[in-house]
Amino acid sequence: MNCKKAKQIDLASYLKKQGFKTGKTYTKDIWFYSPFRNNEKTPSFKIDINKNVWYDFGEGIGGTIIDFIMKYNNCSIKEALIILSENTFPVHQQKKTVINETIPTYSIKKVTELNNQKLLDYVSNRKINLQFAKRFCFQVHYSFSNGNEIFGIGFMNDSGGLEITNIISENFRKICLGKKEITTINNNSKIVSIFESWSDFLSYLTIKKQIPKENFIILNSTSMVSKVTNLLIDYDTIKLFFDNDNAGNKATAYLKMKFKNSIIDNRIHYKNYNDLNEYLTNIKQ
């Protein structure tokens, strides 16, 4: 086994054969729960399917299958090649059709657990339970073409994009790094609760003081509401927690028109507030 042959081994197939747990699979990449950390709650290890390389957002490193073996086994290149030669694995098939992609104007430097005090204070000031926040959100360090590194609170969507709330800089306070998409959380329930944002979702968990036995959909923008219609067909109960504004009214009316008998508009419980989080910050606990 030499380096050239080793790099032809399909990385995703290798990791699956070793028993590493996968997260979500997309057209261009596969997310794994990091092999380098135990009990990870959200996948942070990504494989680029076409390029056959990996990147671990928690560690801030990546590379080929050889780099992975060396990191995981703390061994040399020679020892890594011996490990790979001990078994047979599928050969990576490079796609012949190359799609010209727009080069992103941003770069993600690293993704970690929420630990910056300013971000933790922001969450606490909104009375959101920190344990829920750390379970579903990340601390994302990134930069734009100017090279200045900034960071914010990240919430992953179903396309692997990161919905960013930046409390440090006035510019780009709320952006999406990657493709804009909804976020779905499946708990095998016939009840689904739908929110506009991650902060409203976490506010709901904080009020309940637990994660209810429900499924959850976070739109990440009311402009995404049409994307959920096909997902709602089989639910007995659809609970809405939108904002008390024009966008929230339109999204509620849209879903009521399609699922009239299943919809519960929960805004009645916080009708005097703009959204569920504002209600949370004003109630006595």
TrEMBL record:
Domain of life the protein comes from: Bacteria
Keyword Transcription regulation among record annotations: no
Keyword Zinc belongs to the record: yes
A Pfam match: Toprim_2
Keywords linked to the UniProt accession: Metal-binding, Zinc, Zinc-finger
A GO molecular function held by the record: zinc ion binding
GO terms, biological process: DNA replication, synthesis of primer
InterPro entries documented for this protein: DNA_primase_Znf_CHC2 (IPR036977), DnaG_primase (IPR050219), Znf_CHC2 (IPR002694)
SMART domains, per the entry: ZnF_CHCC
Cellular component, GO annotation: cytoplasm
Domain Zinc finger CHC2-type positions: 39-85
Name the record gives this protein: Toprim domain-containing protein
Organism, scientific name: Polaribacter haliotis
